[in-house]
Amino acid sequence: STVVVGSYVHDHVWLTDRFPETGETRRALGFSTGPGGKGFNQAVACRRQGGEVVFIGALGDDALAQAARAFAEQEGLDCRWQICTGTPTAAASIVVDADGANRILVNLAANELLEVDFLQAHVASFSGARVLLAQLENSLDTVRAALALGRRHGLVTLLNPAPVHADIDAGLLALCDLITPNELEFALLLERISGEKVDHSGLATQADEQLHALCRRLDVGSVVITLGAAGCFVSHGAGARFEAGSHYRIPAERVRAIDTVGAGDAFNGALAAALADPEAGTFRDAVVHANRVAALSTEKIGASLAMPTLSEVHDRFGA
Ligand code: ADP
């Protein structure tokens, strides 16, 4: 099973022909709400791929918290919620224009108050689990504690370093078996950890050897860089838990992408599910699967609710 420690955000998605100007009130072309937050999205993606999931997160004491519980129940997600009285449940406004460009405001609220003590109180969830999955929408101390607990219990520690955080340090990365930055996050991490500046938009076209060498500077056993429509790049160090010393690319699946919001979340949830499956194949098989799930997620609008199921993946790509 997988333990996901992460954020819950109630998304409000507005469709518009164009973004309103300052002081302008425009009529939206459409509106919907749904569960989001990188942590919760990844937990739902993992669950929909057949993974057993425990999600540990924080909510306010309000109506949005009730909605969160209802969503989680529908998905069969086993959740441990820290309830923060006097703080709202996190919410976001996501405005999408006719070109699919978006502008987002998020109030992380309760997510920033998820406490190390709360994780400690639920440490029983870590025993017998195989993968610990975290992101950076909680406080760094909490993320650090989650990774340390995962490591202490022998889980594969997987950090999706998103949104990238200026205070991330080598000590935090040292707790990770595997990290999954996108191009921008990779470039910022590299600069933060090794001082090296690279142009993130040129990463997808770099030679594999060079990309592998850059990955190795982060000193994390395994690095998977997600490259959007170019798929992903995998780099394992000599001491990695998986496929030690190797590196390779997996090209993206061809799909009719209409909304890439949540593609990274689909990728991470599916990767965790595959790595946690006792009957799973190789690490490469797990990445191929994650790449398929992420591609399918771009064919639907929305975050958690757009996550494909295992049967949808089998229908499209075969079992
Ligand atoms: P993020 O959403 O975190 O920015 P990426 O844009 O790198 O992450 O996308 C994550 C993964 O989603 C990619 O590695 C790929 O597997 C898949 N993906 C993203 N965009 C597309 C696309 N246009 N076609 C197919 N797969 C895609």
TrEMBL record:
Cellular localisation: Cytoplasm
Domain Carbohydrate kinase PfkB per the UniProt entry, residue ranges: 3-309
InterPro entries tied to this protein: Carboh/pur_kinase_PfkB_CS, PfkB_dom, Ribo/fructo_kinase, Ribokinase, Ribokinase-like
Positions of ATP binding: 182, 226-231, 264-265, 291
GO terms of molecular function: ATP binding; metal ion binding; ribokinase activity
Binding-site list for substrate: 9-11, 37-41, 137, 265
Entry protein name: Ribokinase
Function: Catalyzes the phosphorylation of ribose at O-5 in a reaction requiring ATP and magnesium. The resulting D-ribose-5-phosphate can then be used either for sythesis of nucleotides, histidine, and tryptophan, or as a component of the pentose phosphate pathway.
Free-text remark on how the cofactor is bound: Requires a divalent cation, most likely magnesium in vivo, as an electrophilic catalyst to aid phosphoryl group transfer. It is the chelate of the metal and the nucleotide that is the actual substrate.
Gene from which the chain derives: rbsK
Enzyme Commission number(s) of this protein: 2.7.1.15
A GO CC annotation given for this chain: cytosol
Assigned keywords, A-Z: ATP-binding, Carbohydrate metabolism, Cytoplasm, Kinase, Magnesium, Metal-binding, Nucleotide-binding, Potassium, Transferase
GO biological process, one term: D-ribose catabolic process
Gene3D superfamilies in the record: 3.40.1190.20
Sequence positions that bind K(+): 259, 261, 297, 300, 302
Known cofactor(s): Mg(2+)
Top-level EC class: transferase
Catalysed conversion reaction: D-ribose + ATP = D-ribose 5-phosphate + ADP + H(+)
Active site: 265
Major place of residence: cytoplasm
Pfam family, one: PfkB
